[in-house]
Amino acid sequence: MFEAAGSVLSIFSAVGKVHGRKKVQKMVHLLKLAGARMPFKYEYHQYGPYSAELQMELSSLDREGYLHESIVDETYVYEMTDKGREF
Fold it and tell me: Most-buried pick from 7, 20, 48, 72 (CB within 10 A)?
């Protein structure tokens, strides 16, 4: 859990807010291809690379209060919380 959570939270500490689930999926996939240690397995779907493991980690981090997921104009927006910054 710590490796996956740390990987995701390190991205959000660098970029702040991300608009769109597809964008998060593609960002993490590209970072993994570039050599970053990302513990998520990817499959290719209709909209490009997708990791069910990453989506579960995002949902878990939201539930535990490390990330905040909201919907703005029908788009999911992810933002790190103060608890996430402390992690």
Answer: 7
